[in-house]
Specification:
The complex is a heterodimer.
Chain A (H helix, E strand, L loop, with lengths): L1 E12 L6 E12 L3 E5 L6 H8 L6 E7 L2 E2 L6 H6 E4 L3 H4 L6 H11 L5 H11 L16 H13 L5 E5 L7 H18 L2 E5 L3 H7 L2 E6 L2 E7 H5 L6 H11 L20
Parallel strand pairs in A: 3-8, 3-9, 6-7, 7-8
Antiparallel strand pairs in A: 1-2, 1-4, 4-5, 9-10
Helix pairs in contact in A: 4-5, 6-7
Chain B lengths: L4 E12 L2 E13 L3 E5 L6 H8 L8 E3 L2 E4 L2 E2 L5 H10 L1 E4 L3 H4 L6 H12 L4 H14 L5 H6 L7 H13 L5 E5 L7 H18 L2 E6 L2 H7 L2 E6 L2 E7 L9 H8 L19 H4 L8
Parallel strand pairs in B: 3-9, 3-10, 7-8, 8-9
Antiparallel strand pairs in B: 1-2, 1-4, 1-5, 5-6, 10-11
The chains are: A alpha/beta, B alpha/beta.
């Protein structure tokens, strides 16, 4: 059973000469209960795919479907009950003047739940935060605790699919381990499907069964995680990316004209 | 090994409503012409250590040390006027994020020329020429165009290289790099590190490399200080980092997912309150 299917997805921003094609002809499917990873450099379009799925990127063409249901240009409430997203920066994703209780109860109310009281407590418990955290403001929480609240908020509508946009890149390695373990536990518990974006290959390899490598808006290779672990890759860019993330320091002297040099407009 | 920087028993304190917060607690280290890594989690005091060396801790923060000397000059008692000459010319610092360290309404050229002329009495044309040379040294193509551009027109990697170029123009003895690559992609990260490495080797600089990435520090540095709760809990040769003995260092290493060694679950760090109280062994280098 397919949870997510993309075929021939193009996403662009701007018009005319200012048009930027952020994603070009991207196609992949994610089975129910699977974890699928998207890796690539910044600007390669991996986050844009998530944004297009959730309806945050308005100009796109191609076909996207969730649980067999084709998506149009508007998302209804059913969609957000099925698909939820966890954002990269837990410091920016929570309203600074809303308590944890307000954050969760607002989400629950929007999705039409009545029993917010018991649900808030069980959500907090589920992400490893006790009831003591319920009336705290974000500035009273550490980065890892904030990301737990963001995960609790994403789980509030009881979704089947979680989109994870670099969920640990703003966190310390020790906290990263806790959050990754939590996500794995939640996945087993709620039978979730993950679509995860990261630039850290080791994190994606830890979490995902299949991985797509993106470069300049295109998917250059889709491979099972075992192939990546054993370095059996077919595309040269994937090999370079793997090599870069294992050997940071190159022994060769500085190349006066490096091959990867771009001026990004952002 | 020539001793460049000697720091003994450095403390950084911030008075707060609920008492005095000690960000750095008795850190001691020496730096020669080498690459010294400082690793630890956020809040462990590694950035504060770097800033304290440059005397960039603002009141009400308090910095005390038994000794903090550069080539025999005591930095703590130096008048602010002379300290300003030290910054940039003798000790430079590369901040974490180029987006917040470059002035968004000045062109790269204006900023580089300004930074250079603050330190040296030279003409605009000479400063411009020097800026061009430095941009080439950090392998930026088409430096003339970059000098006319604004920071928002640069990618993260270019911005970080511009920062490095700017810090290197006055030819400092010591470079403090505070997470210079954590905002960058792996491929660009490699380029920036290679550039810094070459410059350190060629010019014989001392480098303090602050990072939370243990694998990177193990590959890039000569020696590593591991900080926890404001103290140095362990110092070791970078090549021996993977055999480190302290349970905190071991915990950090084990919490990393490994590409070549799949694990069902990652090991979460179990903190021992005793680590924070253990006497810092930073003096025993």
């Amino acid at each position: 059973m397919t949870a997510l299917a993309l075929s021939g997805l193009n996403v662009w921003f701007g018009d005319g000469p200012a048009r930027v094609d952020a994603v070009r002809n991207a196609s992949f499917t994610v089975a129910k209960g699977e974890s699928f990873g998207l890796v690539g450099e910044s600007g390669s379009g991996k986050s844009t795919i998530l944004r297009a799925l959730t309806g945050l990127a308005p100009s796109w063409s191609g076909a996207m479907s969730v649980n067999g249901k084709t998506l149009g240009h508007r998302r209804d409430r059913d969609f957000f009950k099925t698909v939820q997203m966890v954002f990269q920066d837990p410091y920016a994703a929570l309203h600074p003047r809303h308590t944890v209780d307000q954050v969760l109860s607002e989400t629950l109310k929007l999705h039409g739940f009545r029993d917010t009281e018991t649900r808030i407590l069980s959500l907090l418990d589920g992400v490893g935060l006790g009831p003591a955290f319920r009336f705290r403001y974000p500035h009273q929480l550490s980065g890892g605790q904030r990301q737990r609240v963001a995960i609790a908020r994403a789980l509030a509508p009881e979704p089947a699919i979680l989109l994870l946009d670099e969920p640990t890149s703003a966190l310390d390695v020790s906290v990263q381990a806790e959050i990754l373990n939590l996500l794995m536990d939640l996945r087993d518990e709620h039978k979730l499907t993950f679509l995860m974006v990261s630039h850290n290959l080791a994190v994606v390899a830890h979490m995902c069964e299949r991985i797509a490598v993106m470069q300049n808006g295109e998917i250059v290779e889709i491979m099972p995680v075992e192939a990546m672990r054993s370095m059996q890759v077919t595309h040269r860019y994937t090999a370079d990316l793997l090599n870069d993330s294992i050997n940071y320091v190159r022994s060769s002297p500085v190349d006066p004209s490096p091959s990867v040099e771009r001026v990004d407009p952002d | 090994m020539t001793l460049l920087l000697d720091v003994q028993n450095l403390w950084v304190r911030f008075p707060t409503r609920s008492g005095i917060f000690e960000a750095v607690r008795g850190v001691s280290f020496e730096l020669g012409k080498e690459r010294l890594g400082i690793v630890g989690e956020s809040g462990s005091g590694k950035t504060m250590t770097g800033r304290a060396v440059l005397r960039l801790i603002r009141p009400p923060g308090q910095v005390t040390a038994d000794r903090m000397s550069l080539d025999g000059t005591e930095l703590l008692t130096l008048p602010e006027r002379d300290m300003r000459k030290m910054r940039g010319q003798r000790i430079s610092m590369i901040m974490q994020d180029p987006k917040f360290s470059l002035n968004p309404v000045m062109t790269i050229g204006q900023q580089m020329v300004e930074a250079y002329r603050v330190n040296r009495a030279v003409g605009r044309a000479e400063a411009m020429q020097k800026s061009l040379d430095m941009l080439r040294a950090v392998s930026i193509r088409d430096p003339e165009r970059v000098l006319r551009a604004y920071p928002h027109e640069m990618s993260g990697g270019m911005g970080q290289r511009i920062m490095i170029a700017m810090m290197l123009i006055p030819d400092p003895d010591i470079l403090i790099a505070d997470e210079p690559t954590s905002a960058l992609d792996v491929s660009v990260q490699g380029q920036v590190l290679t550039i810094m490495d070459d410059l350190v080797r060629q010019r014989g600089m001392g480098l303090i490399f602050i990072s939370h990435d243990l694998n990177l520090v193990a590959q890039f540095c000569d020696r590593v200080l591991i900080m926890y709760a404001g103290r140095v809990v362990e110092t070791c040769k970078a090549s021996d980092l993977h055999d480190a003995g302290h349970p905190y260092t071991r915990g950090l290493l084990n919490s990393l997912p490994q590409l070549d060694r799949p694990a069902k679950r990652l090991e979460a760090l179990q903190r021992d309150p005793a680590w924070a109280d253990a006497p810092g062994d930073g003096a025993a280098l």
